[in-house]
Amino acid sequence: MAADVDKRTPEEESKIWPQNGHRTPGSGSWIYRGMWTLLMICAVPVLAFGIKYYQDAQLLKRHEESVRTLGAEGLFLFSSLDTDRDLYLSPEEFKPIAEKLTGITPPVDIEEEVIHDPNGETLTLEAKMQPLRLDSMTKSKDGFLGVSHSSLSGLRSWKSPAVPSSSFSSGQFRVFLPPKNKGEVGDTWWVIPSELNIFTGYLPNNRYHPPTPKGKEVLIHTLLSMFHPRPFIKSRFAPQGAVACIRASNDFYYDIVFRIHAEFQLNDVPDFPFWFTPGQFTGNIVLSKDASHVRHFHLYVPSDRSLNVDMEWLYGASESSNMEVDIGYLPQLELQSTGPSTPSVIVDEQGNIIDSRDGSGEPIQFVFEEIHWSSEIGQQEAARRLEVTLYPFKKVSYLPFSEAFERAGAEKKLVHSILLWGALDDQSCSGRTLRETVLESSPVLALLNQSFISSWSLVKELENMQADEQNPALSEKARLHLEKYNFPVEMMVALPNGTIVHHINANFFLDQTSMKPEEEGATFSFSGGFEDPSTSTYISFLKEGLERAQEYLTQ
Ligand SMILES: *[C@@H]1O[C@H](CO)[C@@H](O)[C@H](O)[C@H]1NC(C)=O
Ligand SMILES: *[C@@H]1O[C@H](CO)[C@@H](O)[C@H](O)[C@H]1NC(C)=O
Q1: Of the bound ligands, which one is closest to the alpha carbon of residue 476?
Q2: What is the rounded distance in angstroms from the CA atom of residue 262 to the CA atom of residue 239?
Q3: Measuring CA to CA, how many Å separate 433 from each of 198, 399, 401, 424, 483?
Q4: Which residues cross the membrane (predicted)?
């Protein structure tokens, strides 16, 4: 599979991206470079090669037959259903097509869930949405020139929530309760664990239908389905999954803050896939410790940054090329409870059941006691803990641009700054490769912690800063940064006064650290002296920055 990834010749590559090496936001190529690096690391154990070779040969033969039978586009559709990639469809894999053709959805086999308690409480959630601002997309600048109408059809037609309002039993929200070994304020845990790591790579792009959710995924899937019918609660790229943190508690209640990384597939057959990936979903739930009562529920996509959605779409029948990337601004995507959960039946003193929803009588008024927390942490602290759980690299704090330079000046350190097209702590593609490899490795963390103040910024933010005449010192620092920037990500080492002493582009960095299997594969093993080449390259980069800074400072 690795061999499929980046096998274009330079000539082919320059045909696809005539900008001559300068990769545009649309190219997507550097993502595959990162993938190549990762796959190379995975593809090594030599013993497995023989068996693997035989299997690959069989698969290749079957693949060729499939192309002859179906053509490239037909095979693309077939592969989107073939989740285990064996080039055969099982009944389970054929299910989305059967449902489409018959219009019948067989009852979902929801394990362990739906403990439907008729005496339980119910809660109503409302969904609100303001569609993505198309004019915030980079590609809107030239009127979406060269972007086919079918690519954006799912995006353009998604104007309101799929399900504006829905009722839930409060017991369903027990998925947000902490596991047995957690229960203190500040504790964090994975609600939906990530299944991605450096050795698993990424999930495929050519899928239209989310896999059947299981266990705790069911509720999250149902909630996100209120926005759009095709949520993938396991995103293709890290960060993946959902984490939660106890923000406050008392004897009866928890206030639990959560963060979810999921995405939507906006297109359906016959259009090519269009992935819509909000930076994150976050929110909180106030519920009783036995989940019998939900006081408040709120889930939303933060819209306080100028760009908060990553979009990737395919425009050809190939998984590994023909991919466009853009980012944009989504003003609102939000779920909120209309009020606390209430019982649907109540029992009077004589034990008679009174239907609280009986239209004939006066509606029953519920009075809820005010919740006083016996222990709590702030909203921001809870958010920080979630972040550290999701991204170990956050063990080193990344400060906003201006703060980083102030702090570096005060502590006589250098600024380690990452300038990127999308956001590093969002799900944006730009930070992806970096985050997953080098920034989490402990030698890099230690060096950053010891000698640098770290910061990351969006190109767009620095452009605004540069244009700000009110603050000439900051404007100059932004200018010096932008001067050295190349798409998609530039890592820089700067003096506290803004002079860039060293910088490296992410594409160049990945080229440096990717290994060709025929050159190094055979000597590379997991057991002896495993060291990630990107870690050592990044350490060298930082050390070189330190050395150059010395020269400046001792002049
Ligand atoms: C960073 O340095 C401080 C003090 O030198 C230390 O207490 C802390 O554990 C370090 N953190 C990491 C992630 O290395
Ligand atoms: C920052 O300080 C260094 C060393 O003193 C100096 O060489 C450089 O010109 C300064 N840069 C700016 C932008 O002031």
Answers
A1: 2
A2: 9
A3: 10, 21, 22, 10, 23
A4: 30-54
Same domain flag for 329 and 412: no
Q: Which of 167, 163, 113 is nearest to 341 (CA)?
A: 167
Q: Is residue 514 part of a domain?
A: yes
- Number of domains making up the chain: 3
Ligand 2 atom closest to 498 (CA): 13
Structure tokens at 257: 């803050």
Domain of 477, CATH number, reads 3.40.30.10
Q: Based on the fold, state whether residues 379 and 396 are members of the same structural domain.
A: no
Range of the structural domain that residue 41 is part of: 27-102
> Residues 336, 420: one domain?
no
Nearest atom within ligand 1 for CA of residue 396? 13
Separation of CA 499 and ligand 2 centre (Å): 6
Residue 58: the pLDDT is 81
If you measure from the C-alpha of residue 449 to the centroid of ligand 1, how many angstroms do you get, rounded to a whole number? 6
Tell me the C-alpha distance between 237 and 31, whole Å. 11
Which among 371, 303, 268, 273 has a CA at the least distance from the CA of 130? 303
Residue 462 domain-assigned? yes
Residue with CA at minimum distance from ligand 1 atom 10? 449
Instruction: Kindly state whether residues 333 and 476 are assigned to the same domain.
Output: no
Q: Mutate which of 407, 449, 452, 453 to test ligand 1's pocket (most atoms within 8 Å of Cβ)?
A: 449
Q: Are residues 336 and 367 in the same domain?
A: yes
| Ligand closest to CA 408 | 2
Find the 452 Cα to ligand 1 centroid distance in Å.
12
Same domain, 163 and 184: yes
Between the CA of 309 and the centroid of ligand 2 the distance, in Å, is: 37
Domain boundary among 68, 102, 136: 102
Query: In this structure, which ligand is nearest to the CA of 440?
Result: 1
Q: How far apart are CA 468 and CA 462, in angstroms?
A: 10
User: How far is ligand 2, taken at its centre, from the CA of residue 420, in Å?
Assistant: 24
Output the ligand 1 site: residues, CB below 6 A. Answer: 395-396, 445-446, 449
Angle subtended at Cα 466 by Cα 465 and Cα 469, rounded to the nearest 5 degrees: 90
Q: Whose CA is nearest to atom 1 of ligand 2?
A: 497
Residue owning the nearest CA to atom 5 of ligand 1: 450
* Residue nearest atom 7 of ligand 2, based on CA coordinates: 552
* Co-location of 93 and 176 in the same domain: no
Is 7 inside any structural domain?
A: no
How high is the mean pLDDT in each 10-residue block of the chain (555 residues)? 34 32 33 36 41 73 86 83 84 82 67 62 97 94 88 96 96 96 95 68 81 93 97 87 97 97 94 94 97 97 91 79 85 97 78 61 75 96 92 79 95 92 56 63 86 90 92 96 90 96 87 52 34 78 94 70
Q: pLDDT value at position 39?
A: 34
- 3-state class of 74 per DSSP? helix
Specify whether 146 is located in the same domain as 57: no
Q: Is 548 a member of any domain?
A: yes
Q: Global pTM?
A: 0.65
